[in-house]
Amino acid sequence: AQRVTQPEKLLSVFKGAPVELKCNYSYSGSPELFWYVQYSRQRLQLLLRHISRESIKGFTADLNKGETSFHLKKPFAQEEDSAMYYCALSRGSTLGRLYFGRGTQLTVWP
Amino acid sequence: DAGVIQSPRHEVTEMGQEVTLRCKPISGHDYLFWYRQTMMRGLELLIYFNNNVPIDDSGMPEDRFSAKMPNASFSTLKIQPSEPRDSAVYFCASSFSPGGPIGELFFGEGSRLTVL
To answer: What's the whole-number mean pLDDT along residues B94-110?
Structure first.
């Protein structure tokens, strides 16, 4: 069975500090991993996906199959990064079906 | 496109009452999902449809919950009778495949339900 684990419910950093939101998964096949973000009073939206290997708003995430992790990182956090972040997994064969972690609330202090 | 539209945005009701949440997906999308969000459990998938057909309803908590998708532009999630533990934010999301990016869901703004 597939499972997505975000060990930190809450994470606080100061502006300008590096931030890393952890995500671990369990799945025997080849998953696709995503990060979704929900800013205050906004819709939940896609932030980035591992197959794109892109940097969005300064965030990057590398899929580590050996450690079954997909941690989200940013070298210098900004106050506007404060939001709820969800890691999600797709089995690929079931198009559109995502399994979400429980989310991490990131707060960036000024 | 206005995106996924959900109504009502907020609902306060008393235990035992029937609650109906509504969703209009993005035009052309062939998948529709209902999620429930709580502090304790995060985002839970309740049910999803493909081309109006329910594919997986294993996340529906119990018989008090039911969902329908009578056509490609409308879906409902009904709770009858409602209980305080149903209090949560209910999200509807839609996606398009094949052709669209796999796994990108477009979410509505959510319906915040409070059952007293």
So the answer is: 77
The set of residues, in sequence order, having a beta carbon less than 8 Å from that of A36 and lying 6+ positions away, is A44, A45, A46, A47, A85, A86, A87, A88, A100, B105
Question: Which pLDDT belongs to residue B98?
Answer: 60
Task: Please measure the distance between the N-terminal and C-terminal CA atoms of chain B and give it in whole angstroms.
Answer: 35
Interchain CB distance below 8 Å, A32 and B102? yes
Mean pLDDT to the nearest integer, B67-90: 96
Give the separation between CA A97 and CA A109, rounded to whole angstroms. 35
Whether the per-residue pLDDT at B100 is higher than 80: the answer is no
According to DSSP, the β-strands at A10-14 and A104-109 are parallel
Best mutation target among A2, A46, A95 (most B Cβ atoms within 10 Å) is A95
Given this model, what pLDDT does residue A90 score? Answer: 85
Q: Hey, which residues does B92 pair with through a beta bridge?
A: B34
Note whether A104 contacts B: Cβ–Cβ < 8 A: no
For chain A, residues with pLDDT lower than 70 are 92-96
Cβ pair A61, A35 in contact under 8 A: yes
The per-residue DSSP string of B6-21 comes to: EE-SEEEE-TT--EEE
Give dist(CA A79, CA B106) in Å, integer: 25
Q: Is B41 on the interface with A (CB under 8 A)?
A: yes
Q: A94-98, B56-60, B81-85: which has the minimum mean pLDDT?
A: A94-98
The SS3 assignment for A50 reads helix
- Specify the 3-state DSSP secondary structure of B37: strand
